[in-house]
Specification:
565 residues, alpha+beta, D-Maltodextrin-Binding Protein, domain 2, 2 domains, seven-stranded mixed beta sheet, five-stranded antiparallel beta sheet, 28% helix, globular
Length: 565
């Protein structure tokens, strides 16, 4: 039996052979880091002197990425991009260290793996729910965890994160402080999936009372902060006086402000109205080169990914010649220079994975040299595209007219990506494609996608666990994947995805992942437009802040952040 316990040290990735060897020797303290993720660059643990201790007090002011929890407070129904900020007040069994992306404990004090299909989680002692009705500060139990994980994997299509636990066979409480998860087969991804931003633990009585989770009163968790209020202007969080991690958090509170656009938020940061903010892409090069001594600056390897999906249940998108032809018209390099660099500062070529998982991906040079969709110039790809579309019956005289849905809202890059993609289709197809753009707000878009009420879309996509490669494949490409909105189904691909999930050794798993990426590039009707990086800035008084993204906010990290007086 292998046990993973934690002592606060940095965790590293170890192979199954290492686990067996060390277990046989009786070595304790082994832990599996997030599958294959390398350590990410970040600021030093403290920007102050070695002898400086964190100071308690103060309120941190930041921009609300979720627009003050516009989608409500139910993490099981929302994507990681909408649930990261919920980490202020909700918690999970395990979490990822924001600097190293290694697994570390949260509500689980430790876990054991008696076999490849069985996991035992021992809960932290003394964890209490926030002192808000109806939980009223009672102690967390294993039954709460079982209830939450069973709810997370509900087959109702509204539960878009269900695939995180689709390998689980049984989830049960052994006693009040222990949870057992038994999987149907060996699964190298499930521990990482339990650290997903959406895999939060909820109190059953709160769920029963909350209904649609529409108000701050419904947000009852075990986290470092308590949500005090929330409206269209922002949200206010205060320190949890009964927090189970002794001495934390340092901050008295957090104010999340809503801004109508990126420039308004950036202007507020420059005059000291915000303590942290994303740097607009147009400002990134200048501020990193000329004002590095004025702020704490860092890059975040984003988990966000701009995806394109056709609805294969709608004609003519059920014809692979059409979807292949459309993919070949995507100009990925223009997406980098005309969109990612302009709005976010940096971008990266990708087909199915985000910048955060670039160690699993092909290099940009490999994309350009091996795959027609990415080759420069686009002449050969355009020629092949027009040939495929003509074979499917579409020409200048008989163009394919369709509606492409995109996302609108206060983040300027979302509208820009849709408008540029529309222009690429209309121009590079030489009139064979005529895309009409229809922009939707976040909630109507989610409803259109889940109800399959669309023809073609381009939008920002994040699976339930963005740091686990299996989550990307299984969420967007696997048959009946929870965000496989276009209904793509390919038994050969499903078999490849299942195969890589059962490989625990990273060095053996990576070639299997490359095999999947190659298959997708040759066969899939979906593609990525671009992945990206996010530049972050924090005022000098902010200590222990870690860079975040537009699509991922750590939330729980803020228990460590403090303000120098």
């Amino acid at each position: 039996m292998t046990e993973r316990s934690f002592d606060g040290l940095s965790l590293r990735r170890i192979s199954r052979r290492d686990i067996v060897k060390h277990a046989a020797l009786g070595t304790g303290g082994l832990a599996l880091a997030a599958a294959g993720c390398r350590a990410k660059p970040g600021p030093p643990k403290s920007s102050g002197s070695e002898s400086e201790r964190p100071q308690r007090g103060g309120t941190l002011r930041r921009r609300s990425v979720t627009q003050a929890f516009q989608g409500g407070f139910d993490p099981h129904l929302q994507a990681g991009s909408q649930t990261g900020e919920m980490g202020f007040f909700y918690q999970s069994l395990v979490r990822l260290n924001p600097r190293t992306i290694a697994l570390e404990p949260e509500l689980a004090q430790k876990w054991e793996q008696p076999s490849q299909t069985e996991y035992l989680f021992h809960l932290q002692p003394g964890v209490k729910w926030h002192n808000k009705p109806p939980a009223n500060g009672r102690v967390l139990t294993a039954d709460d965890v079982v209830f939450s994980l069973e709810r997370l994997r509900t087959k109702d299509p509204r539960f878009i994160n269900a695939s995180l636990l689709d390998s689980a066979d049984k989830i049960e409480a052994v006693d009040k402080g222990t949870v057992r998860i038994t999987t149907k087969l060996a699964d190298a991804s499930i521990i990482n999936n339990l650290a997903a931003l959406s895999a939060k633990i909820l109190a059953p009585e709160v769920v029963d009372k909350a209904g649609k989770f529409g108000t701050a009163e419904n947000a009852v968790g075990t986290g470092a902060f308590v949500l005090q209020s929330n409206d269209e202007t922002g949200s206010v969080l205060v320190r949890n006086p009964d927090y189970w991690r002794q001495g934390l958090p340092y901050l008295d509170g957090i104010r999340n402000a809503v801004f109508k656009d990126d420039q308004s938020a950036w202007a507020a940061f420059l005059v000291g109205g915000l303590d942290t903010n994303y740097v607009p892409g147009t400002e990134a090069k200048k501020i990193f080169s000329e004002q590095a001594n004025k702020y704490h600056l860092d890059w975040f390897s984003d988990v966000g990914w701009v995806g394109l999906q056709a609805n294969l249940k709608r004609k003519p998108f059920d014809d692979p010649r059409v979807t292949r032809g459309m993919r070949l018209l995507v100009d990925h390099d223009e997406a980098l220079t005309g969109w990612a660099e302009v709005f976010l500062g940096r971008g990266r070529l990708s087909s199915a994975l985000p910048a955060a998982l670039d160690t699993w991906d092909f290099t940009e040079d490999e994309y350009r040299s091996k795959f027609l969709e990415f080759k420069r110039p686009k002449d050969d790809a355009v020629k092949e595209s027009l040939s495929l579309l003509a074979a499917a019956g579409f020409t200048k005289d008989n163009p394919l007219k369709f509606v492409m849905n995109g996302l609108t809202g206060p983040l300027a890059f979302t509208r820009a990506q849709s408008e540029l993609m529309q222009a690429q289709f209309n121009q590079l197809s030489q009139g064979v494609l005529r895309a009409e753009l229809k922009l939707l707000e976040e909630v109507p878009q989610r409803q259109a996608l889940s109800g399959k009420d669309f023809e073609y879309f381009i939008t920002n996509l994040v699976p339930g666990q963005p740091y686990e490669v299996d989550s990307w494949f299984r969420t967007f490409y696997y048959t009946n994947g929870s965000r496989n909105y276009g209904s793509y189904s390919d038994p050969a691909l499903d078999k490849l995805i299942d195969k890589q999930r059962e490989i625990f050794d990273v060095n053996q798993r990576k070639p299997a992942v490359k095999e999947i990426l190659t298959y997708l590039l040759d066969h899939a009707p979906y593609t990525s437009w671009s992945s990206r990086y996010n530049p972050n800035a924090a005022q000098l008084k902010v200590q222990d802040f870690v860079a975040e993204g537009n699509s991922a906010v750590w939330g729980y990290h803020y228990e460590q952040v403090w303000l120098r007086a």
